[in-house]
Helix-turn-helix transcriptional regulator
Amino acid sequence: MIKTPVLKKLNPGFGSSFMVRQHADNREIKNALWHFHPEVELVYISEGRGKCHIGNYFSYFNHSQLLLIGSNLPHHGFVDRLTARGKETVIQFHPDFLEGLSVKIPEFSAVSNLLERAKKGIVFGENTKKSIGAKIELLAEKEGFSRLLIFLEILNDLAVSEDYLLLNVDGFVFETSHKDSVKIDIVYKYMHKNFQKEIQLADVADKVSMTVPSFCRYFKKSTNKTFTEVLNEYRVVHATKLLTESQLSVTDICFECGFNSFSHFNKKFKLITGKTALQYRKGIKLIISE
């Protein structure tokens, strides 16, 4: 079952302004979290299969992947299976990392623009992956100033690349204070626990000690979506997981995800993913069989 979006606290190691993590193994991730954090995240997967859920963007991948995820943009764990040759490298850094440099040093202006675009989520194409992937993997072997120089070069390469796609054109970012993030977390935990049944706005508002009108305004301001829209998206994400990982019929999945009308489920599923549930399942089977 997909976990609730939680605020994750990340801390780079002593003497470093950014984090680098890397692993290379055959594994299956069962407990990846749907989460967000203030840090920008760069993810490079050299080979593998997995899910890609960033904000409102849903996809599966069957090869390499290079993603840049902006501050407070909700996302889900990526890799389901890595091949013996595959590696996943994750770099995380605070958006203030280069604060002020674009003004003092003109060469950094392109990187600042890159981080602004990253608020929507970016997936880079094949040419960029080929030219930058090896540099990203090299970061795990470097330390100190040498690591910093390579990282700045990577950011600049990404900044000037035209081989990319923005994932959330309409935006999906938690522009919140820490206090607001705690409230959002309470809401999502309640949603996670109850999404398979009918949820009343009054019950959700009560969880964060707000009136229904105040809660609706607050939630729309925080997520750029109404609570009902996010709840439907959450249910559809769970449906994509069941379509991929279970043998349940599409009808059974509809009701398992909290929809009380099959026609309503089909309408929302296609609106959010661009496909019907049956088309989605057939597409996943083709990917897995390749």
About this structure: Residues 178-289 form a domain with the Arc Repressor Mutant, subunit A fold (CATH 1.10.10.60).
